[in-house]
Design brief:
The structure holds 2 protein chains of 2 kinds.
Chain A: E1 4-7, E2 10-13, E3 19-25, E4 31-37, E5 44-49, E6 56-57, E7 68-72, E8 75-80, E9 89-97, E10 103-106, E11 110-114
Parallel strand pairs in A: 2-11
Antiparallel strand pairs in A: 1-3, 3-8, 4-5, 4-9, 5-6, 7-8, 9-10, 9-11
Chain B: E1 4-6, E2 11-14, E3 19-25, E4 32-38, E5 45-50, E6 55-57, E7 60-65, E8 70-75, E9 84-91, E10 98-100, E11 104-109
Parallel strand pairs in B: 2-11
Antiparallel strand pairs in B: 1-3, 3-8, 4-5, 4-9, 6-7, 7-8, 9-10, 9-11
The chains are: A mainly beta, B mainly beta.
Chain lengths: 115, 110
């Protein structure tokens, strides 16, 4: 299994500012993912954070808006840049463990409200 | 057609009843399948993986039908604490992408 710590757990941010979310895993993992879940919606993959290379972004998400770092196999950050109220959402860090049975674990999420 | 589709519900079911959800997927090359549970304002948590032979964990039974490309979740003797959103999750083979359904909301009524 994997234990994932995310911070901040929640924040209220001013429009136009940026916020960086941190994700720490208790073991080394190859694949880390960042998801967004807007109110009442399902999870949408923002990007896959690759260690040692640039993140791979899904359609509709760009690096300028959501820069991601992955300095090592246990840590990643997601920045939400130049925030607007439409960015109010829960942001979830996730890791995939593909060894003995494929399993996906989530952090507790970071609840962002942009005012 | 969405890659993973679920009936959004809500399913309102009396306590003690049996309830079943289905989830269909469009990519026949999909590799692995899961059911996750998400409580309100919480992160999703793995309920069970779904194997070709079907699997059971207590009151929960998951089945996979590759020919018809659907997975199912059966909950027997439902409890109030089963009230949650149940997410169907598919691991896509070709690029290891994890695809989520929109979830099925379940309300167990006392």
């Amino acid at each position: 299994s994997a234990v994932i710590s995310q911070k901040p757990s929640r924040d209220i941010c001013q429009r136009g500012t940026s916020l960086t979310i941190q994700c720490q895993v208790d073991s080394q993992v190859t694949m880390m993912f960042w998801y967004r879940q807007q109110p009442g919606q399902s999870l949408t993959l923002i990007a896959t954070a690759n260690q040692g290379s640039e993140a791979t972004y899904e359609s509709g998400f760009v690096i300028d808006k959501f820069p991601i770092s992955r300095p090592n196999l246990t840590f990643s950050t997601l920045t939400v840049s130049n925030m607007s109220p439409e960015d109010s959402s829960i942001y979830l860090c996730s890791v995939g463990l593909w060894n003995s049975g494929n399993t996906i674990y989530f952090g507790e999420g970071s609840w962002l409200t942009v005012v | 057609r969405k890659e993973v589709e679920q009936d959004p519900g809500p399913f309102n079911v009396p306590e003690g009843a049996t309830v079943a959800f289905n989830c269909t997927y469009s990519n026949s090359a999909s590799q692995s399948f899961f059911w996750y549970r998400q409580d309100c304002r919480k992160e999703p948590k793995l309920l069970m993986s779904v194997y070709s032979s079907g699997n059971e964990d207590g009151r929960f039974t998951a089945q996979l039908n590759r020919a018809s490309q659907y997975i199912s979740l059966l909950i027997r003797d439902s409890k109030l604490s089963d009230s949650a959103t149940y997410l169907c999750v598919v691991l896509r083979n070709r690029d290891d992408k994890i695809i989520f359904g929109k979830g099925t909301r379940l309300h167990i009524l006392p």
